[in-house]
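assembly run, all chains below
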Amino acid sequence: MVSLVGAGPGDPELLTRRAALRLAEADVVLYDALVSPEVVALAVHALRVPVGKRAGRPSTRQESINRLLVRAARRGKRVVRLKGGDPFVFGRGGEEALALSAAGIPFEIVPGLSSALSAPALAGIPVTHRGLASAFVVVSGHAEAAYTPVLSALAPGSATVVVLMGLSRSAGIASLLVSKGWKRTTPAAICFAASTEDSFTWTGTLGDLGAVPKHEAPGTIVVGEVVSLAGVLGGAHEQPERERLHASR
Ligand SMILES: C[S@@+](CC[C@H](N)C(=O)[O-])C[C@H]1O[C@@H](n2cnc3c(N)ncnc32)[C@H](O)[C@@H]1O
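ok done. output:
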């Protein structure tokens, strides 16, 4: 049996109960680079294998990961494939599920809290809010060809835009939106390392988005009027959260 488990954004308290249970019972855990060490540590009995993929760094090939999963399951091990956020949101979880299905290996999906929602929420940004946004769109910034048609089709300001894997293309994404009629003064944010002790949020405008200094931490971009709420709902939450995480170490 293989469990494709969502690890949430980082803080172990944001795991589902089922995710924590599968980790506690696992014999083998294959985990991605963005899964926090605190979450991996919950697999107390397991052989823990990093198969991480970080932009620009060596990673285990997808085919090898699929093979490792199948091999471990055939040996009768309880296998957890641990992925950041939710396994089916830009995580290639679907491909792994298909590979397991093709090999006749029973599997389950344990959904996780995606950074697409949790990173804005922890920064005090509701992705929908009456009077400000009644829809939100989540895109990957990884490939221009994937996000361009989606963002181009949006009426300016009609939805909150959330971009994962978008830090290296933030300038291009901002100019695309501006070229489609979005105001340069539209509030924008980047939520870095949400739910970890290193979390911080940059807030500014769409016009400034491309000039945010580069940072090693993973970040989620949010564009839309809802970002203006971060000033009211955000700071109050992030500080005690950071203190709590420090205190628990
Ligand atoms: C390959 S995608 C995987 C997304 C994941 N499956 C999910 O549902 O959150 C990785 C991207 O998620 C975002 N991300 C992951 N962890 C994050 C965190 N703790 N804080 C902010 N953004 C995060 C970043 O945009 C990063 O580039």
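Residues 110 and 122 are 22 Å apart (CA to CA).

Residues 9-10, 34, 83-86, 89-91, 114-116, 119, 164-165, 191, 193-196, 218-220 surround S-adenosylmethionine (CB under 6 Å).

not gonna interpret more than that til we talk
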